[in-house]
Amino acid sequence: MGPxxxxxxxxxxxxxxxxxxxAAHADAAAAWLKDRQARFAAYHAAHLHPAAEIARxxxxxxxxxxxxxxxxxxxLDGGPVIWRVSPRPVDLWDGADLPQMIVVPAGEYTMxxxxxxxxxxxxxxxxxxxxxxxxxxxxxxxxxxGEYARFVDRTGYDAGHSCYNYEGGKYDQRExxxxxxxxxxxxxxxxxxxLSYADAQAYIAWLSKTTGxxxxxxxxxxxxxxxxxxxxxxxxxGEDIGRDQADCDGCGSAWDKQRxxxxxxxxxxxxxxxxxxxxxxxWLADCWNDSYVGAPTDGSANLSGDCRPHALRGGSWxxxxxxxxxxxxxxDLTDARHVGIGLxxxxxx
Length: 349
Description:
Blueprint: H1 4-11, H2 19-46, H3 50-67, E1 81-83, E2 91-93, E3 100-104, E4 106-111, E5 128-132, E6 136-139, H4 145-155, E7 162-165, E8 172-175, H5 197-211, E9 214-216, H6 220-228, E10 281-288, E11 306-313, E12 330-333, E13 341-342, E14 346-348
Helix pairs in contact: 1-2, 1-4
């Protein structure tokens, strides 16, 4: 049947399955791994010197930032600035069952929502200019069931056995629900959900130890920047939710308010990142603050304020469409496991 982590991934498909169904899902997980191994081999053959590529990107980025005028945090009407040093997204990948990463270029943008934006919240103010004067890598997709299962199998980590979900039309915490069995059908290519802040940090610590690279959570400023990907509208694709752009309550997709979608189900944004909005919320490094008063302007996380809850971004498959706006902010207690919360990882270059 293959490695035990594949069998664990198969358990995430449904809460109660027969032996034949479980075997079928194990076969699907094995096929997923085989495909990843083939794609990783092709990636590795084409990227023999990733460290040299990273060094080139960092040097070129530093030169562009050094030539830029000083940051004016009040220049709210200035358009986004993207300091691209490559015509195409640059991939980094440490292993077949580890997350694929995309290098996000340095840049500058206006964080927060304008007063006229529909459904805006007061905590999206005051708008301010942010300069992210460094390139950083971000997982191409939210962390998937297959990827999280590999971590659990290798470490024996216990990510809990209860999760808040919406079964039977009622929102409640239920025993026997977890990232393995959130209460709806999952496969290896779906985002892992029902993960707490500690569950996210445990995965990141293991990634860093396994690869020797500095993986971490994103900051709020970084997340809004990568979600907008050089755009200024309510959503990265425009001012309206449209149809079939994401997975949410009102997105017009096949998965709306039923379950998570495969992480590659929709088109990527301008940075080559998939599902930056909808599908699942992402834990962030920031403590919660009710406004941007005193917020960092350099892309770093805000570690002041109330750290019992941490910031979340992105919206989920159960979120109303307007919650998927690029400027929308949310929070939850760090021990919360929710059927709409997962994670995305960053890597410091």
